From TrEMBL:
Top-level taxon: Eukaryota
Organism of this sequence: Aquilegia coerulea (Rocky mountain columbine)
Protein name: AB hydrolase-1 domain-containing protein
Length: 330
């Protein structure tokens, strides 16, 4: 939910490096050692080695892949996210490289400030295009999807579309699957804006933009505001006030895909009244028995628990990933 603004356009497939902005940071127990130099995915701290490529016709449809392996983990960020969205991506890339996996980060039409004029439906189309590219151009044996924040909603929606390439998804990690609606309800003015969005949609103006005060950080349509903020909107998948039946209706199709839920027990975007332990238990049950990982004191992006989240993801991927790589289409 931190605003970023740098976009990439008109980039053809090249070998390149990508760096994070320089930051002053002292070593901590959360740092994970990186394999610097040589042929690894990380050259030095905050600098990646990999391939930058176009996976679709839009200028925004750019992806960056570290490692040159036939098994890929695709990271899908949340609202305002783009490349290098979380601090755990660098050590995750190194850990995946050691296991002979590639990490793929990519931009969608909804990346950075584009989320307000996009939708889960559009996200799913573009995610399918990326997986198709990996299958047809990179000879992929299958993928694992890792979602952060609203990226979890993209994954859940995509897996419910039965798109052809969704059969190549061998596992899913949902990191910080929390309710945008419940968080937005804590902010002043949200209720009035939901009413306005509902009126605009009923008048056939769902694609029109809301007033600037609805979201000062990005232009947002009536439809997307309603989707994110209204009860049972299209994005409303992880709210604590949904019944068990409603959660099963929204999440139950995930039961056929191995799934891990990583929940931050100090997530700043979860209202204090929410019983986090009860919520994550209900979510895992609705997902068909997903693996539950509770990270005590972890914040939304787990920037304060990097080592723990990487270890959890690698353990899940090693357990669930390699079982059926021989034929993604069986």
């Amino acid at each position: 939910m931190n605003l970023s603004s740098s976009l990439l356009s008109s980039i053809s497939s090249v070998r390149t490096k990508i760096s994070t902005p320089k930051m002053t940071k002292t070593p901590s127990e959360n740092d994970v050692g990186v394999g610097v130099g040589g042929g690894g995915s990380v050259i030095r701290k905050n600098q990646f080695r990999g391939s930058l490529f176009k996976y679709g016709s839009k200028s925004i449809q750019v992806a960056f892949k570290t490692g040159d392996f036939r098994r890929q983990v695709i990271f899908i960020g949340g609202l305002t996210d783009g490349f290098l969205a979380t601090e755990y991506l660098e050590p995750l890339s190194v850990a995946l490289d050691n296991e002979k996996w590639s990490l793929v980060q990519f931009l969608l039409s909804s990346s950075y400030i584009g989320y307000g004029t996009s939708s889960l439906k559009q996200d799913a189309v573009e995610l399918d295009q990326l997986i198709s590219y990996l299958i047809n151009k990179e000879d992929s044996e299958g993928v694992v999807l890792v979602g952060h924040s609203t990226g979890c909603q993209i994954i859940v929606h995509y897996m419910g579309t039965n798109a052809a390439c969704s059969r190549a998804v061998r596992g899913v990690v949902l990191q910080a699957p929390v309710s945008d609606r419940e968080y937005m309800a804590t902010l002043p003015g949200t209720a009035a804006m939901i009413d306005l969005a509902s009126s605009m949609i009923s008048e056939g103006r769902g694609t029109d933009l809301m007033p600037r005060e609805a979201d000062p950080g990005a232009p947002i349509t009536a439809y997307r505001y309603h989707s994110l903020c209204a009860y049972m909107g299209d994005d409303d998948m992880f709210s604590s006030d949904l019944s068990d039946d409603q959660l099963r209706m929204r999440l139950g199709h995930m039961s056929t895909t191995p799934c891990q839920v990583i929940f931050s027990m100090a997530d700043e975007f979860v209202p204090e009244y929410v019983d986090k332990k009860a919520l994550v238990e209900r979510l895992c049950r609705a997902l068909g028995g997903a693996e539950k990982v509770e990270i005590e004191w972890g914040n939304h992006s787990l920037s304060n628990r990097v080592k723990e989240v990487v270890q959890a993801m690698i353990s899940f991927i090693k357990t669930e990933g390699p079982k059926g790589w021989d034929d993604p289409w069986s």
